[in-house]
Amino acid sequence: MVQSLNHSVPAFDIKQQYTIIEAEVSAAVLEVLASGRYIGGPIVAGFEQQFAAYIGVTECVTCNSGTDALFLALKALNIGAGDEVITTPFTFIATAEVISAVGAKPVFVDIDETTFNLDVNQVAAAITRQTKAVIPVHLFGQPVDMAALMNVAKAHNLVVIEDCAQSTGANWVGQKVGSIGHIGCFSFYPTKNLGACGDGGAITTNDPEIAARLRFLKEHGQKNRYLCEEIGVNSRLDAMQAAILQIKLRYLDFWNNQRRQVAVRYHQYLNQIPGLIVPQELAGGMGVWNQYTIRVQDNKRDSIQSLLQQRGVNTMIYYPRPLDLQPVYENLGYKDGQLPVAQQASQEVLSLPMFPELSEEQQNHVIYSLKDCLA
Ligand SMILES: *Cc1c(COP(=O)(O)O)cnc(C)c1O
Fold first, then answer.
1. Cα of 196 to ligand 1 centre, how many Å?
2. Whether residue 3 has pLDDT greater than 90
3. N6-(pyridoxal phosphate)lysine-modified residues are where (predicted)?
4. Which of 22, 208, 259, 333 is most buried per CB count within 10 Å?
5. Are 334 and 304 found together in one domain?
6. How confident is the model at residue 6 (pLDDT cuts 50, 70, 90)?
7. How does DSSP assign 138-191, residue by residue?
């Protein structure tokens, strides 16, 4: 392996992917521009069908973002004031924010040390008479043990809304995430595995009544034009993004596989280094590696990050502070140390450069720099 020192490795690079599909994307975008159908229409409907088929569900409703997908899902289920929703504290703020936005209360359950995902074994103890739903997050592209979670949910009559924002294409025992719970919520933010050239989101379900309600709520709560029956929102995926996503969906499995190859190689060279823990996949889970997140032990994470930076290796910290300890959730009364696994993770995690086009040379630079910095 040749060590290369003279270039910098970005944490992600979405421009490179665009250059690969530039001709196809340009043609599709020009076609939308010439069509005059910028909102709704056959291209959006076509993408919804293709995405539903890809995930393995009967219904897909597109919307403006992953955040809106989660918000609309809660609204469609009439979850609001007086209700509780269980979720993980180790996620992007959007997951909990929407629970608050509909007037319900987020209840945080600690995470599993190995996967960084909600610890399914702790969910039952957090259920009260107010609990209506659970939002598992398939963090970094790694699926939650959905068989175990669905068992808990069934026993307690809870709805499961999967936050699949980082995990498009991942599966649990062959079943794609977003098709296992009652509702799946996806983000097409540019850095996600299936990213648009702007904002976008989708909701998947096998329940036609929920899908109908979602379509109603995302168009201002109008059943018929100008007949308003409920307060809704305006949340649409526009035709240009749908056209781009139709193209990118055809490449998704290929790109996810390239991410997997990067992960395999990182694992091969970084496994069994003292002071460093590499991510592991659970048996049954097939992740899509939105992030490759290691743990740096012994309080060395921040210094390792700056040493890597000096060598041109850009890394990210997802997430530096768990949600239970965010100022905005002070009112929920969580104490320092109450959810210790998430708290410790927030101090140790470091996400290495990860994108499908990451070259072997770049991977080597990351691997050798990290070994160097730890030595
Ligand atoms: C990105 C993300 C979201 C929100 O998606 P947007 O499209 O940015 O609104 C929600 N949950 C998780 C876990 C995410 O990573």
1. 13
2. no
3. 192
4. 259
5. yes
6. low
7. -GGGPPP-HHHHHHHHHHHT-EEEEE-TT-TT-EETTEETTSSSSEEEEE--TT
pLDDT of amino acid 88: 98
Q: Is the CB of 163 under 6 A from ligand 1?
A: yes
Residue located nearest, by CA, to atom 10 of ligand 1? 94
State how far the Cα of 186 lies from the Cα of 164, in Å rounded to an integer. 5
Tell me: pLDDT of 2 over 70: no
CB of residue 95 inside a 6 A radius of ligand 1: yes
The pLDDT, as a whole number, for residue 264 is 98
What positions carry a catalytic annotation? 192
Residue 148 maps to a domain: yes
**Beta strands 131-135; 84-87: pairing state:** parallel
Per-residue pLDDT of 220-236, as tens digits, reads 998 888 888 899 999 99
Query: Do residues 224 and 321 share a domain?
Result: no
Ligand 1 center to 142 CA (angstroms): 15
* 268 and 366 both lie in a single domain: yes
Structure tokens at 306: 């700056």
Contacts of 319 (CB under 8 A, 6+ apart): 90, 91, 92, 346, 349
- When pLDDT is averaged across residues 312-332 and rounded to a whole number, the result is 98
Mean pLDDT of 200-228: 94
Looking at the 3D structure of the chain, how many domains does it have? 2
pTM of the predicted protein model: 0.97
Residues 6+ positions from 299 with CB-CB distance below 8 Å = 347
pLDDT digits (tens, 9 = 90+) for 104-163: 999 999 999 999 999 999 999 999 999 999 999 999 999 999 999 999 999 999 999 999
Strand order in the sheet with 292-296: 276-277, 292-296, 349-352
The verdict on the CB of residue 187 being under 6 Å from ligand 1 is: yes
Nearest by Cα to 66 from 322, 354, 290: 290
Identify whether residues 228 and 261 lie together within a single domain.
Answer: no
pLDDT of residue 1: 43
DSSP 8-state symbol, 37: -
Rounded distance, CA 91 to CA 326, Å? 12
Asked whether residue 197 falls in the same domain as residue 258, the answer is no
Ligand 1: which atom is nearest the Cα of residue 68? 9
